[in-house]
């Protein structure tokens, strides 16, 4: 089956987008409107699924994440985009004069593409504290810009298990004056002074559990809290790129330029897979920008 004027069959596309979140869908939308044949590979496991709503996204504030993705999928399909359910095992370069790739799924399905956009996001590696995973997105939160308004002025906590936790606490203080920092790992003198200066109470020592009722501590027993903010370790979902040899930074994240291009010609990346701090709206914007860059790449390579 041919799509547009590309001449590619149903298993060969001008662009394969890996990841069906905001970045991937917006890249596919832009490319579909540019009359490119596009397939989106999606595992159906969005990172923000536990959240009640998407926030900070103009005209979509408060929309449930699943609803946002469903609308996006419908829009991509309207322009001829195809969706393939599954996980990518690896991406291989094909021999030839220009960029050409084989996207191999775990079930053996192979999609051929002239260009690839990686938008697989990241996974949150949570601290090994009982209750954190069970309450993730409900009473165990991460981003104050995503959840702070909904719990504002309530008794809040910071689970101090990460080097970013003190920084997180200083941000969360913007939303509540009743803030307790649970120093599971030792605090530096500078961090302790900064927290104290902002009126943040510190409870030192082990935490036994985080629950909907509060934080179970060794020092004080249950400290009632409406919600607890946690700083996870961010791990990009990009292992399938290893064989391509994409250049990485010192922290191990794939490097991209301002348009999402990696060091491997024809491979682009956008959203949380290359930017841990990207919110839904900025991930979507990065996907749109990558879509523009990929279309231009195809236009001028063929010229």
TrEMBL record:
Keyword Protease on entry: no
GO function terms (MF aspect): thioredoxin-disulfide reductase (NADPH) activity
Record's catalysed reaction(s): [thioredoxin]-dithiol + NADP(+) = [thioredoxin]-disulfide + NADPH + H(+)
Keyword Flavoprotein: yes
Superkingdom of this protein's organism: Bacteria
Keywords: Flavoprotein, Oxidoreductase
Coiled coil: none
Pfam family, one: Pyr_redox_2
Segments forming domain FAD/NAD(P)-binding: 13-154, 193-287
EC numbers, comma separated: 1.8.1.9
Transmembrane segment boundaries: none
InterPro entries: FAD/NAD-bd_sf (IPR036188), FAD/NAD-binding_dom (IPR023753), Ferredoxin-NADP_redctase_2 (IPR050097)
Protein name: Thioredoxin reductase (NADPH)
